[in-house]
Every structure is written in structure tokens, then in C-alpha cells.
């Protein structure tokens, strides 16, 4: 009831660009975002002025030319002068609009001479980011929705950034021209961050370019904007813009972590570590289709599954290669050996499965190499 | 509607002519729209697709006055398990000069597979100025289980590349085309 | 057309085998109303799920089936057939013809529709569910990644296309060959003009849609790669072909609505339509322009900048002839003698709200700004303003206006006005806030949303329930009129109405104008 009242009140009170109940586009933090916002406002005000004028004439007529007040109808039905005027004047207004529209569009397309390139790949239903550097261990990772299923299915209170939070955001340095190379793995997606005013479709087999220069540190949130299947609404975009120093440190840590993961893959890991990491991988990559208790849903049940309880290499083959003709994707390219070992271990021991199998990263590497 | 009469009954005459228009518009999609799209994309190089055959024109000279960065990106499409990469991720080249780079692919499965590499260039208007004299993308690539291969790319950036383009990104997306006729539908 | 006219046959066979334009028009209208309620039901499911953040009622995959079917049913099952029904009823009477040019083809045009929609609706019960890729069905979501029901979807689209093409051929053949002597083209009512032009658009672009879905069928079942990069194809090619159909399609939806408004406003202004000739030319220019603007639906797809600029300029241009029409309608009212019966109320509602939709259309045409609008609720708001407050309001006005002529009974004016006000208010509560959430960053086609969009979504859902309920009131009004409305016997039911159909008895007899009429030269009209 309280929400109904506030909803009703909102029709009367028009709040300004507050985050909640925002009614207008945000100018965002980039220069191009501000230019687009100015253009949007210009066109909108021209439309408002024309609309007010036109409707004023109509409402006046509705009032003054009523039959019930005895107004007699004139019979005029043409006037070349007037018709030419209201053809030519709108045409001139359109030309006036086209000038700033053209210059802003040319700005959007100015992708050259970037200082940093990031490859963005849309997957069903997550984003992958890869920093394209000339050399060195590549930094690449997936960015999954981090909002828990309990919040989505209303058993827990929704957090502030509900549906707009990820496990691994895209980090970029401020005041740097960043070029995005955007493609997709499966169907068409679209990458959009309103506050930096970048939106570009992600087309499988093709690469699109976009660019930005973010002057202000901050966290900027967006979403996928092309229908891409069931979870289209659940693959947000989060960009952290940080200082150049912070960015460099973060990249170094990421490269180090990649190296560390490779080292980890050589070790024998304790069971509880594997189960912990396995649960984290399961929750982020498997849960949406296979259920929080492994009970299934869009995907088969994990609990009591003969595949999961059976031969390990067959179990891993399904996880790695997916099942063609179904929604089960190939996770081989998305999980490293440690993550794969962990999630296999978890699936084989959680949900009452209790096989006692512990899968080590070395086992995974071995199975891959045959 | 012209002086050709398809029927003595005027209404039927009109109707038959309109049927012809409808059929022509249906044919238009296959016979005009698809080829026109491909021709325009090839000729104007506007959707980033590069030529599917080797470039054979003789290069006259090298433009020493400027260099262009060519960046290489290797991407796997859905369900494609091969490892696919290139050592040289970017090169500085002179327009007009012949250059080469090698991509490496490895089939980690036990079964023979066939792949098709699909190139895409960004900015798309640079595609008309990027000539491949030899490319692994011209043919499908078969690999036995557990096998790997080095795949060469030889290219020349045209001297007429617009001066305002300083970086060209060439991406290859590797698709699994082992079952070339798609019988089932991959349901998501 | 023989001389065995005994009036209509009895029972179900009358309706199955009729070749009478009035019967066929009636069937189209009732069918489209049923589809409107079905599509509206899908919309209620959508708005119920979007009432609050979080997933409460349906799963995301099913939600996508609802949005897809809502669009398909409304566009192809409700709006288009409803205007075809109007065309069937009115065009022969307006031009003084006894029936449509090809009456048996007319019967087929209607009767293939119910099976097509039955097939489409039955996909809900198939393995993998109904199509869930949006009414715009982009590849490869609709090819490689589609559910098995996609094949039935493609068959349904083919059948709908055949129905539209046959109907349009009939309309063109009728108008070109069967006008009464003296009814030159420039004496035809504007409703006939707009339908003539629409019919040409349909004949030109429905086959293009057929081509697109055939190419999908070939990619899915016959190993071609029109839309798949792997085989040398391009998903963006699909978008070009689809929107080459899709943009003219939205003008196909709105032009007959323009025609209706051009008949009704002069009647209730008791004044001739202002600028008849320029209305005809404006309609024709909108139709021509509609062929060269399609890629404004694709501004974010990665087109070269020259292409974006061309499509932006061409799209902006359409504002000119559209504006001319709005000015002409208002000038028709100016210094008229206005009364505000239900049909006129819906037309005034159309004038205001369609114009608002036109303004947001102009904003959307600006390519760089569209990078922030594309695929958000701002677009959803725009097209519902022009399609619902535009086309549906116009159709509603048409039903109230011509119903007395069709059945000889008047609807209840107070109930009609009530329907108008609830519709108008409900519609705006539903769709005006969608501009806000779109500008604030809410994408379209999502079953759940971030918390900052919650209040406006709740408001929009409440509005939707109100608007939906008011359509049941419409149904009641129509049935009450037909069954128990006050009998009308004046030929000219409305004192300001002009046109040949208003010279016929009320209700219109089963066969009319078996002898061509004298085309009057009304004072002041062309």
C-alpha cells in the first residue's frame, strides 16, 4: 500500500535525476556522454515547444469552436500559402537538428589512436574481458552476475546493486583512450554502459569497435541490450575506472594470479579448499540451471545423477564440451584446470552425492592430454 | 499498369500483375538483396569482411613515411575447443610492405575436427585496404585428434589506406564446421 | 455475380463459405478483437511479472515467450486484420461498388488466418516452448539457437503473409477497377486512398518477410549459412532484410489509421478535410520514404558512419509529411462546429498521443542519441504510443463511428465516453513512465530489473491492468449495442458524415450498390 501511494505521488512530483525514479537520461561522466545528453535535450525541447504550440491551437479550437456553444462551421478547406509554410519550416528545423547530430555521430566513430585495447565477448549469459597487450601473460576473465538467486527469487532482501553487480568487473584507467573490440561467442548481444555512453552490438564472427575516455574514477553499471536468450536480463556490465597507478597495480596482480593459478595447477590441493572453490564455481556457473541444491531446473539434476556419480572422465567431458542441442554450454574454455578440478570435486561430493572423489588440477590436465 | 493485358477481366488482370510483383519481391530477396549485400560489403569493405581469395596484385612500392599497427586477435566460437593463438599479437608495418604472421591451432580432443576461421577487420573501412596474399582462412582446416598446426598469414596493407587510420585489428573467429549440414538445433 | 441473392445463408456454412464483403469484414473484425484480447492477456502476464523486481510468476524463458507472442499476435493478429476488416466493410461502400473485386479469394484471405494463429499459439505447448526470440526474431538466436517450434513459427508467418498479400491484391483490384462512374481518384475518400497505398506497400514487402523466414528455414534445416558467419554469412544481413520489411510494415499499420481519422474528424467538425490533395501526397511520400529508412533500427550494429548518416537524414525527413498531416487535421477542426461523441474523442486522443509518439520517434532518429535509447524502454514507449494510441485508438474510433451503419443500432454514448476516458488515462499511466525508465537505463525484453526502476514499473503495470480492463468494457459496449442498442434508421447517422456509405440505408443491406450510384458533388469538397 505504501508503495502504491509513493507510486501515485510520483505522478505528481517529478524528481530530478536522482538514481531512484530517474526521469531523464544521465549526462554521464564522459565528454561524448555530455554531448549526447545535450543533443537529446535540444531535440526534446524543440519537440516540447512545437508540441505546446500545436496542442494550444487544438485545445483552443476544442474550446472555442464547439457546436454546443453555437459556433457555425466555416467551409474553407485549403490554403497553399499555409501548407507551403508548414512544410518548409519543419524542413528547416530538421536541417538545424542535423548539424549537431552529425558532428556528435562523427565523434562516436572516432576509434583511432587508443592507448588500451580490450576485447569484449558476449556469451550466453556473461561477458568475457581480455586485455590485448603486445606481450606477456594475457589477462582475461569472465564477468558473471553476482546477485544471488535467493535475492532474485525473493527469499532474501535485494541488495543495493541488485542485478547490476558482477564477480569480476572490467577495470580501466581514467583519462586514457580505451578502445573496445566487441564480439560474441554465440548469439547477438550488446554491451552498454549508460554513464560512459557506449553501446555496441556484439555479433558472433564479427568485431565491432567503440571507444571511451573516462575522466572520473568511479563504478559504472550497465546491461546487455540485445535479446540473447533466457537470461538476457541477467548479464550486467560493471566498469571500474581507477587511477593509472591503481590500474597498473591491478593488472600486475591479475597477471600474477594467472601465473599463480598455473602454479596451483601443479599442486595437490586439500579437499576442503577444492570444495570451497568448487562451490564458488558452481554457484557462479552452474547454479542458475542446475539449482542451488543440485535439484535441476533448466538443466538436469546433479544430485543423484548417474553421470556425476559415474566415470570421472565422462563427467568432465560433459562439463568441458557441453551437450550439443541443449542449453549445456562447453565450459572447458571458461574454467581453468584448478576451477575445473574444484567444481568436479564439488559436484561429486555435494547434494548427497558423497562419492569421496577428490579431483586434482593435475588430474584435469592429464585427462585433457589423454 | 502498362499495355500488356493478362486477362480480359480488368480485376483479374490487376490481380495477376500484382501476383507477379509479389513473386518478384520474393525473388528480389534472394537474387538481389543477398548478392547486393555481399557485393557492397566486398567492394566498399564496409562490414569488416576481407576477401575470401588470395590477393595477387603486384605491390609497387613501400611507403616508408608512415607505419600502421596491425593487431591480431584469435577467438574461438561457441563449442570450439581448439586452442588458437598467435605469438605476434601486434606488428608495426609500412603500407605496401609484405608481412607475415603465424597462428597456432591445436585440437585437444580425440576426434578429427574441421574448423573454419572467419576474419573480421576493425575499423571496417580498413578492410578494403588489407590484402591477404596467403591466409589459412581461405580454406577449412582439418586436424586429427591431438594434432596441432601452424597456420600462416601473409598480408600487405595498401598504400592508399586513409591517413587517419593508425591501427587495424584483424580478428579470426574459429568455428567448428565438422558437421557441415546442421541437422539439429542447438537449443539454449 | 449472378442474380441468386436471397440474403445470407443460414448457420455456420454462411460464415465458412461467404463471399460477401460485409460478412468477411465482420469475421476479420471479430477475429482481430479475439486476437487483441489474446495478445492483451500475454501483456498482462508480462506486466504482472514486471509489477515488482524479482521473479514472482514466471521463469525468464517463459517470459521471453510472452513478449514474443505478444508482439506477433498484436501486430499480425490484431492490428493488421482489424484494418483489413474495415477495408472489407467500407471500401466497396465508399466507392459505390457491390463487393470486392475477387470475392472468393477474399474468403480464403480470411479463413487461413485462424489456423495460422492456432498453429502459433500451439507452440506454447510444444517441446522447447514457443518462440522466445522477440517478434523481430534476429538470427542466430532464431536459427541455430531456436527451439524446435521455430519451424511452425515460420509456417505461420508464411500463411499470414499469403493472407495479407491476397487481401492487398483484392483491395488494389477493387479500387482500381470498381469505382462508380464519376468517382475519380481525387474524389475518393481518404480512407480509400490510405488503404490503396498501404496495399501496394504490403504487396511489396510481405514477400520480403517471406524471403527472410525462408532463408531462416534453409539455414536451420538445409545447411545454408545466410546468417551464420561460420559459412561465410552474416547475422546482420538478417537485420537488413527483416527491417526492409519491418519499417514499411509500421507504416502499413498506421496509414489506414490515418485514413480513419481523416474521415471522422471532418464529420464531427462539420467541415471538409483541410488540404485533401496534400493529404494524399503526404501519404504517398510517407510510403516512398518508408523504403529507405530501415537501418534506423540498427544504429548500434556497427554500420559505417556514412550509412548511419544517410539513414538518419532520411528518417528525420519523414517528420515533414507526417507533420503536414497533423497540421491538416487540426486545421480541419479549426473554425468547425465541433461535437465530441465517442469516435471524435478517440480521434482527438489519437491526435495528441500519436503526435507525442511522433516526437519520440524524431528523438530516436538522431543516431548518436539513439546509442543511449536503443533497446531500452524508451523505444517501447515510443512504439506503443504510435501503435496503441495511434492505430488502436483509430480502430476503436472507427468501430464506434461505423457500427450503427453496420448493425442499425447505436451504442450507449455515456458508456462509450467512459471507455474512452478509462482507456486514455490507463494508456498513459502504462506507457508514459516507460519513457523515464528507458532514459534511466532499463533495457527492454528483461523479466526483472534493478531497484531504481521499481516505482515506475509498478505504476506502468497498474496502468496496464486499467487499460486492459477497459477493453473488456469496449467488448461489452459493442455487444450491448448489437444486441440491445437503440435502433437507428437515418442513412446519415452522424449529421456531419460525408461519403457514399452514408447514403445507404441503416443498417446497410446485405448487398449494396448493385447498381452504381451517382457520385455527388458535395459543396466545398473535392
Whole-number radius of gyration of chain B?
23 Å
**CATH homology superfamily of the largest domain in chain B:** Ctag/Cox11
- Beta strand count of chain B: 9
Largest sheet of chain B: 5 strands, mixed
Average pLDDT of chain C works out at 95
Proportion of beta-strand residues of chain C: under 5%
**Major beta sheet, strand line-up of chain B:** 3-1-9-5-7
How many domains make up the coordinates of chain C?
1
* Poorly predicted residue ranges of chain B: 181-188
SS field, number of helical segments of chain B:
1
Major sheet: arrangement of strands of chain C: 1-2
Major sheet description of chain C: 2 strands, antiparallel
Quickly count the domains of chain B.
2
**So how many helices of chain C?**
16
Give the CATH topology of the largest domain in chain B.
Ctag/Cox11 (Pfam 04442)
Descriptive tags:
heterotrimer, A: 370 residues, alpha+beta, Helix Hairpins, Immunoglobulin-like, Cytochrome Bc1 Complex, Chain D, domain 2, 3 domains, five-stranded mixed sheet, 10 helices, 42% helix, 16% strand, elongated, C: 526 residues, mainly alpha, Cytochrome C Oxidase, Chain A, 16 helices, 2 strands, 66% helix, globular
Describe this structure in words.
The complex is a heterotrimer of chains A (370), B (188) and C (526). Helix content of chain A is 42%, strand content 16%. Chain A contains ten helices and ten strands. Chain A has a five-stranded mixed β-sheet with strand order 3-2-1-5-8. In chain A, a hairpin with a 4-residue loop joins β6 (189-193) and β7. In chain A, α2 runs antiparallel to α3 (80-108) and α9 (337-349) crosses α10 (361-369). Chain B is α+β, with helices and mostly antiparallel strands and 188 residues long. The longest helix of chain B has 35 residues, at 10-44. With 526 residues, chain C is mainly α. Chain C has a single domain (30-503), classed as Up-down Bundle (Cytochrome C Oxidase, Chain A). Helix content of chain C is 66%, strand content 1%. In chain C, α2 (21-49) runs antiparallel to α3. Chains in contact: A-B, A-C, B-C.
Summarize the structure.
Chain A is α+β, with helices and mostly antiparallel strands. Chain A has 10 helices and 10 strands.
List the helices and strands and how they pair.
The complex is a heterotrimer of chains A (370), B (188) and C (526).
Chain A: H1 2-12, H2 31-64, H3 80-108, E1 116-123, E2 126-131, E3 139-143, H4 149-152, E4 170-173, E5 177-184, E6 189-193, E7 198-202, E8 208-213, E9 218-224, E10 237-242, H5 244-264, H6 271-290, H7 306-309, H8 312-321, H9 337-349, H10 361-369
Parallel strand pairs in A: 1-5, 4-10
Antiparallel strand pairs in A: 1-2, 2-3, 5-8, 6-7, 6-9, 9-10
Helix pairs in contact in A: 2-3, 6-9, 9-10
Chain B: H1 10-44, E1 68-76, E2 83-86, E3 90-93, E4 98-106, E5 113-122, E6 130-135, E7 141-143, E8 148-157, E9 167-176
Parallel strand pairs in B: 1-9
Antiparallel strand pairs in B: 1-3, 2-4, 4-8, 5-7, 5-9, 6-8
Chain C: H1 12-17, H2 21-49, H3 60-95, H4 103-111, H5 113-122, H6 150-177, H7 190-221, H8 235-269, H9 276-289, H10 305-317, H11 319-333, H12 342-365, H13 367-373, H14 377-407, E1 409-410, H15 413-440, H16 454-484, E2 486-487
Antiparallel strand pairs in C: 1-2
Amino acid at each position: 500500500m505504501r508503495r502504491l501511494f509513493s507510486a501515485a505521488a510520483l505522478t505528481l512530483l517529478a524528481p530530478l535525476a536522482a538514481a531512484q525514479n530517474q526521469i531523464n537520461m544521465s549526462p554521464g561522466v564522459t565528454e561524448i556522454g555530455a554531448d549526447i545528453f545535450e543533443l537529446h535535450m535540444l531535440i526534446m525541447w524543440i519537440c516540447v515547444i512545437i508540441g505546446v504550440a500545436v496542442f494550444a491551437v487544438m485545445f483552443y479550437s476544442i474550446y472555442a469552436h464547439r457546436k454546443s456553444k453555437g459556433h457555425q462551421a466555416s467551409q474553407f478547406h485549403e490554403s497553399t500559402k499555409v501548407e507551403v509554410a508548414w512544410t518548409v519550416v519543419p524542413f528547416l528545423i530538421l536541417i538545424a537538428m542535423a548539424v549537431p547530430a552529425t558532428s556528435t555521430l562523427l565523434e562516436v566513430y572516432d576509434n583511432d589512436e587508443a592507448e588500451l585495447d580490450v576485447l569484449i565477448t558476449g556469451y550466453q549469459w556473461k561477458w568475457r574481458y581480455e586485455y590485448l597487450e603486445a606481450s606477456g601473460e594475457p589477462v582475461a576473465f569472465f564477468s558473471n552476475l553476482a546477485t544471488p538467486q535467493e535475492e532474485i527469487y525473493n527469499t532474501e532482501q535485494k541488495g543495493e546493486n541488485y542485478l547490476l553487480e558482477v564477480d569480476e568487473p572490467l577495470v580501466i584507467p581514467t583519462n586514457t583512450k580505451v578502445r573496445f573490440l566487441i564480439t560474441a561467442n554465440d548469439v547477438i548481444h550488446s554491451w552498454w554502459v549508460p554513464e560512459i555512453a557506449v553501446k555496441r552490438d556484439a555479433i558472433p564472427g564479427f568485431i565491432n569497435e567503440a571507444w571511451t575516455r573516462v575522466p572520473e574514477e568511479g563504478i559504472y553499471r550497465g546491461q546487455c541490450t540485445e535479446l540473447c536468450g533466457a537470461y538476457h536480463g541477467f548479464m550486467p556490465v560493471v566498469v571500474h575506472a581507477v587511477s593509472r597507478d591503481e590500474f597498473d597495480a591491478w593488472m600486475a596482480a591479475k597477471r600474477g594470479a594467472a601465473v599463480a593459478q598455473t602454479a596451483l595447477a601443479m599442486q595437490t590441493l586439500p579437499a576442503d579448499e577444492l570444495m570451497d572453490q568448487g562451490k564458488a564455481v558452481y554457484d557462479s556457473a552452474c547454479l542458475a540451471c542446475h539449482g542451488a541444491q543440485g535439484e535441476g531446473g533448466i538443466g538436469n539434476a546433479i544430485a543423484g545423477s548417474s553421470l556425476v556419480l559415474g566415470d570421472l572422465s565422462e563427467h568432465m567431458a560433459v562439463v568441458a564440451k557441453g551437450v550439443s542441442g541443449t542449453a549445456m554450454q562447453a565450459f572447458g574454455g571458461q574454467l581453468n584446470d584448478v576451477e575445473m578440478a574444484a567444481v568436479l570435486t564439488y559436484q561429486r561430493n555435494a547434494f548427497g552425492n558423497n562419492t569421496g572423489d577428490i579431483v586434482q588440477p593435475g588430474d584435469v590436465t592429464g585427462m585433457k592430454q589423454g | 499498369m502498362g499495355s500488356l493485358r493478362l486477362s480480359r477481366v480488368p480485376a483479374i488482370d490487376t490481380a495477376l500483375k500484382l501476383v507477379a510483383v509479389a513473386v518478384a519481391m520474393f525473388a528480389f530477396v534472394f537474387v538481389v538483396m543477398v548478392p547486393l549485400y555481399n557485393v557492397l560489403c566486398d567492394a566498399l569493405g564496409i562490414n569488416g569482411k576481407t576477401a575470401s581469395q588470395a590477393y595477387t596484385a603486384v605491390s609497387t612500392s613501400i611507403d616508408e613515411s608512415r607505419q600502421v599497427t596491425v593487431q591480431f586477435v584469435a577467438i574461438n566460437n561457441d563449442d570450439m575447443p581448439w586452442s588458437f593463438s598467435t605469438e605476434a599479437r601486434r606488428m608495426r608495418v609500412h603500407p605496401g610492405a609484405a608481412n607475415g604472421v603465424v597462428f597456432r591451432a591445436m585440437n585437444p580432443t580425440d576426434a578429427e575436427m574441421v574448423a573454419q576461421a572467419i576474419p573480421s577487420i576493425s575499423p571496417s573501412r580498413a578492410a578494403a585496404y588489407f590484402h591477404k596474399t596467403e591466409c589459412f582462412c581461405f580454406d577449412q582446416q582439418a586436424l586429427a585428434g591431438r594434432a596441432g598446426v601452424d597456420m600462416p598469414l601473409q598480408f600487405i596493407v595498401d598504400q592508399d589506406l586513409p591517413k587517419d587510420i593508425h591501427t587495424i585489428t584483424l580478428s579470426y573467429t574459429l568455428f567448428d564446421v565438422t558437421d557441415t549440414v546442421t541437422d539439429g538445433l542447438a537449443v539454449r | 455475380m449472378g442474380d441468386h441473392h436471397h440474403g445470407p445463408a443460414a448457420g455456420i456454412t454462411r460464415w465458412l463459405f461467404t463471399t460477401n464483403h460485409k460478412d468477411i469484414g465482420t469475421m476479420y473484425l471479430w477475429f482481430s478483437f479475439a486476437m487483441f484480447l489474446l495478445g492483451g492477456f500475454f501483456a498482462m502476464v508480462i506486466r504482472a511479472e514486471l509489477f515488482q523486481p524479482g521473479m514472482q510468476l514466471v521463469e525468464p524463458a517463459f517470459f521471453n515467450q510472452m513478449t514474443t507472442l505478444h508482439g506477433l499476435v498484436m501486430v499480425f493478429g490484431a492490428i493488421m486484420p482489424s484494418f483489413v476488416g474495415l477495408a472489407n466493410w467500407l471500401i466497396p461502400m465508399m466507392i459505390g461498388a457491390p463487393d470486392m473485386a475477387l470475392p472468393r479469394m477474399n474468403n480464403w484471405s480470411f479463413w487461413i488466418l485462424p489456423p495460422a494463429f492456432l498453429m502459433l499459439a500451439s507452440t506454447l505447448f510444444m517441446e522447447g516452448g514457443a518462440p522466445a526470440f522477440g517478434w523481430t526474431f534476429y538470427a542466430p538466436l532464431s536459427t541455430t539457437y531456436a527451439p524446435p517450434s521455430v519451424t511452425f513459427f515460420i509456417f505461420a508467418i508464411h500463411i499470414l503473409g499469403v493472407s495479407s498479400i491476397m487481401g492487398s491484391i483484392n483491395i488494389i483490384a477493387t479500387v482500381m477497377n470498381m469505382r462508380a462512374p464519376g468517382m475519380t481518384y481525387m474524389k475518393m475518400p481518404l480512407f480509400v486512398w490510405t488503404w490503396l497505398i498501404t496495399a501496394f506497400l504490403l504487396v511489396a514487402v510481405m514477400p520480403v518477410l517471406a524471403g527472410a523466414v525462408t532463408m531462416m528455414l534453409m539455414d536451420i534445416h538445409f545447411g545454408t549459412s545466410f546468417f551464420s558467419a561460420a559459412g561465410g554469412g552474416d547475422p546482420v544481413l538478417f537485420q537488413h532484410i527483416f527491417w526492409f520489411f519491418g519499417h514499411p510494415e509500421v507504416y502499413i499499420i498506421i496509414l489506414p489509421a490515418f485514413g480513419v481519422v481523416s474521415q471522422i474528424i471532418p464529420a464531427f467538425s462539420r467541415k471538409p478535410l483541410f488540404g485533401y490533395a496534400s493529404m494524399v501526397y503526404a501519404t504517398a511520400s510517407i510510403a516512398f520514404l518508408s523504403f529507405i529508412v530501415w537501418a534506423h533500427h540498427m544504429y548500434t550494429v556497427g554500420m559505417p558512419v556514412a550509412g548511419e548518416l544517410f539513414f538518419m537524414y532520411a528518417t528525420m525527413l519523414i517528420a515533414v509529411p507526417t507533420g503536414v498531416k497533423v497540421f491538416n487535421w487540426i486545421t480541419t477542426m479549426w473554425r468547425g462546429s465541433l461535437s465530441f461523441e465517442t469516435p471524435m474523442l478517440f480521434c482527438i486522443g489519437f491526435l495528441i498521443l500519436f503526435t507525442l509518439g511522433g516526437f519520440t520517434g524524431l528523438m530516436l532518429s538522431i543516431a548518436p542519441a539513439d546509442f543511449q535509447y536503443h533497446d531500452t524502454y524508451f523505444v517501447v514507449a515510443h512504439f506503443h504510443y504510435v501503435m496503441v494510441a495511434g492505430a488502436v485508438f483509430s480502430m476503436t474510433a472507427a468501430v464506434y463511428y461505423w457500427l450503427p451503419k453496420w448493425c442499425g443500432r447505436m451504442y450507449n454514448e455515456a458508456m462509450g465516453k467512459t471507455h474512452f476516458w478509462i482507456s486514455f488515462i490507463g494508456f498513459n499511466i502504462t506507457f508514459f513512465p516507460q519513457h523515464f525508465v528507458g532514459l534511466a537505463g532499463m533495457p527492454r525484453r528483461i523479466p526483472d530489473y534493478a531497484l531504481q526502476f521499481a516505482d515506475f514499473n509498478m505504476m506502468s503495470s497498474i496502468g496496464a491492468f486499467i487499460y486492459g480492463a477497459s477493453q473488456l468494457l469496449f467488448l461489452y459496449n459493442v455487444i450491448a449495442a448489437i444486441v440491445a442498442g437503440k435502433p437507428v434508421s437515418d442513412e446519415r447517422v452522424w449529421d456531419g458524415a460525408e461519403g457514399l456509405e452514408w447514403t445507404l440505408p441503416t443498417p446497410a443491406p446485405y448487398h449494396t450498390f448493385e447498381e452504381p450510384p451517382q457520385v455527388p458533388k458535395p459543396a466545398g469538397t473535392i
